[in-house]
C-alpha cells in the first residue's frame, strides 16, 4: 500500500532527527542523485557528459537539488543551477561550487544587465531537477522568478518530452496537502519524495503533475494514520471476497440490481455484467429491462427476493416513476437493514438526508456538484474538478455516505478519515457505460463481504477502492494501450480478479 502523510506530520517526524544532527539532507540528496543518474542512463546510455539544470528555491528542496547536483557534477555531469531566490541553501551552494557547477541567478538582473538565456539552458538540458518549493506549499502555483522558470520550462520541453523533469520531494506549485494544481505548476516525469509520499502526489488533479512517484526512506517514524492511501495488488487481494470450500451461491453474496429501464436497458446489462464478472454468487434484477438482462445473462433471476447488497440508479431516468419508486424502496430497505448499497446516477437525487457509511455514492464530478447544491453548497462541476478531495469529503460530511468520486484518479472518502486515491485506469476508460460496470463490480465486492461491512464502517471505503482498482485494470486487460468499450471492460473483469486472488 502506498501511504501519503500530511506535510505537518512529516515535519513533526523530521524535527527530533534534525535536532539530533541526523543528516537528512545528505540522505535525500544522495538518493536524488542516484535516481537522477538512473534517469540519465536510461535516456542517453551514460551519465558522464550529460547536462542537468537545477531549479533552486529558498527552501530545503533547493538545498537537496544543489547537493544532488554537486554529486552529479563529480560524476562528470555538466550542472547549471538557476537560482530563483536571493538566498538559497548556503551549504548546497558551496558544495556545487566546489564541484565546479555553474550558478546563474534569475531572481534579479545581473549587475552588468545581461539577462541569462534561461530558455536555451533549459532546452539544452537532459534532465531538470525541480527544487523550487517544498512541502509547505499550499497550491496556487509558483510565483515570481520561480514562476517565470516554470513557464520557461514548459515552453522549452519538446514534443518528445525532453528535457526530462525530476521533482524534488513534490512538484513545485501543487497543493501538497490537498492535491490542488492551479497557476504555474511543474509537470514532472518522476517525483523522488522523502520519508513518505505527500497527499498531493496521489490526489487529483496534482497527481497528474507528479509522474511516477518513488519514495525514499530517510529514517522517519511517522505518527498517526496516513492522510491518503493507494491500494496495490497485495492489499486488494486481501480485501477481495474469495469463496471457501463450503461456499454456495447465497453465502457468496446475492446482489440486487435496480438499474436501467425500457429506454436505457444497457445500463442494467452492464451493471449485471460487472457484478457477474467480479464473482458475485447471484444477481436479482428488478426493473423493466429484464428481457434484455436475461438475453445477455440467463443466470440472472428477475424479480424481488432476499439480497445482501444493492446496485441502484444506473440508467434510471428522471421521468421513470416506476423505476424510481423501486430505487426508493430498495434504498430504504438497505438503510434500515444494514445492507450495503451502491448509489449511482439516477438514484443520487433519491438519497435520504442521512445514510450510514455502508451506502456508497459513485458520482462523477457533475453529479457530485448537483448533490452538493441540493444540500445548500455552492459548488459547480469545475469546483469539484479543481478540488476533488475537498468536495468528496464535504459530500461525506453532509450525507454520512461513503463517497467514490469517479475520475482519472478515483477518490474515495469514508468515515474516520479514510481516504483512498486510485490511479489504475487508462484514459481510454472514459467511455459511456464504464461507470455502470464499476457499480456492478463494487456491488459484487460489497455483497461478498456484506456482514463484514456491517461490522466495520470503514470497510466499504476500502472495497470501493478495490473495485476501482479492478475496474481500471480490466480496462488495461481488455485492450492494452488502446480504446475499450464498457462491455469489453466487463468481459475482462474475471481475468483481473483471477490474477488478483492468485497473488
In terms of topology, how is this protein built?
Blueprint lengths: L1 E3 L2 H13 L4 H21 L6 E6 L3 H14 L4 E6 L6 H9 L3 E4 L12 H6 L3 E5 L12 H13 L7 E5 L21 E5 L4 H4 L4 H4 L1 E5 L11 E3 L2 H7 L14 E5 L6 H13 L4 E4 L4 H7 L4 E2 L6 E4 L8 H17 L3 E3 L15 E3 L3 H10 L6 H6 L1 H12 L2 E4 L4 E4 L5 E4 L11 H15 L1 H6 L3 H20 L7 H16 L2
Parallel strand pairs: 2-3, 2-5, 3-4, 5-6, 6-7, 7-8, 10-11, 10-13, 11-12, 13-14, 14-15, 15-16
Antiparallel strand pairs: 1-9, 16-17, 17-18
Helix pairs in contact: 2-3, 3-4, 10-11, 10-16, 10-19, 13-15, 16-18, 16-19, 18-19
Detailed description of the structure:
42% of the residues lie in helices and 15% in strands. The protein is an alpha/beta fold and 503 residues long. It folds into two domains: 2-228, Rossmann fold (3-Layer(aba) Sandwich); 233-501, 3-Layer(aba) Sandwich (UDP-N-acetylmuramoyl-L-alanine:D-glutamate ligase). β13, α12 (321-337) and β14 form a beta-alpha-beta unit. It is elongated.
What tags apply to this protein structure?
503 residues; alpha/beta; Rossmann fold; UDP-N-acetylmuramoyl-L-alanine:D-glutamate ligase; 2 domains; 7-stranded parallel sheet; 19 helices; 15% strand
Brief synopsis:
By secondary structure, the protein is an alpha/beta fold. The protein contains 19 helices and 18 strands.
Output the CATH class name of the largest domain: Alpha Beta
Q: Can you say what the CATH homologous superfamily of the largest domain is?
A: Ribokinase
Termini, distance in Å?
Answer: 15 Å
Number of strands: 18
- CATH architecture identity of the largest domain: 3-Layer(aba) Sandwich
Mean pLDDT: 94
Structural class, from secondary structure content?
A: alpha/beta
Helix content: 40-55%
Beta-strand percentage?
Answer: 5-15%
- Envelope shape: elongated
For the sheet with most strands, the description reads: 9 strands, mixed
